[in-house]
Amino acid sequence: MGAEDKTTLYDFRYWTAPDHTRIVIDTEEDTLFSISEDSNYIILSVDDAEVLSETFSHIFFEDKRIKKTLIKRDRETIKLIFHTNKDYIVKHFTLPPNAKYRYHRLVIDVIDLESDVLETVDPIEQELPIKKKVILVDAGHGGEDYGAIGKNNSREKDVNLAIAKKLVATINQNPDLTAVLTRSGDYYIPLTKRITIAQREKATMFISIHADSVESTSAEGASIYTLSEKGNNSKLAKQLEQSQNSVDQFGGVEMVIDSDQFLKNILTDFSRKDRDIQSQQLANEILNQLKKIGPVHKKEPQTANFVVLKTPAIPSVLVETAFISNPTQEKRLTNSKQQQKIANSIYQGIIDYYHKIENPL
Ligand SMILES: [Zn+2]
Asked: Is the pLDDT of residue 310 over 80?
């Protein structure tokens, strides 16, 4: 067998989440591999494989679960040995190439069942007798899922997280409100898990932060979406629905959950109409504020069938803060002061919404 018949391991990445570490290996279709583990090791063996010299160093990473990574070769196999600091649940699956990744991917999730806690929740605050309103702030994408990429290579997932963190900090200055992030770092969370987090945190509002992207570099402005189970017929919304909802090809978990059934179950026990009306009110208030600080793409809130907006019984909106595909807007999205401005506008929209529903005319 010549060298050209070997299986190539093209590249390696890892993402550290609060409850798991995800290891991703770019490789070929039908790669022959096996995974074995004990309390201190996870060993990935790939038959007749080679590692590209330019990505070789990417294997040697460490994080809070992986203490050390080693590589061992013999004539037939390459073994990647991940030394762990304790016993973890190990799950693996493969993902096909897509628009963002040209290679097949082998994904290994190292899951810590004991630490399924959000880093941002303060347990002392939760015991306070006065119930605060809990706002779930969702930074779109993360980890393997970059979201859109700007002309100057900024990544939507980073911009979303930066704005989401600023929004959370701003909200938390208000003693009546508590904000919680769905993700606080660069890792992927499946869409349905984002909903589960909102439920677990007893959120009373859900705000998902994104940035838009289209082919043309001149499109500009913020948009805001609420859920419509029927979906939206506009071309941009259709594209968005597709890209937003299909990000779960990064998950793995969703592959085993029947997501339709999952959503049906959580949708049965509340009034959809109330949520929709409240979501539209919230969308109006946020959009009114965003209009004050920059262009808007559409003057009215839009609707689309976004999975992430399906948390039962609470107003949920998705904010497309600006077009990352427009270099001028990309600059704005990556500027810390501008990010804070966007966060302030969303915050003011939330406050106006609460003010109106608590003081109806
Ligand atoms: Zn997005």
From this structure: yes
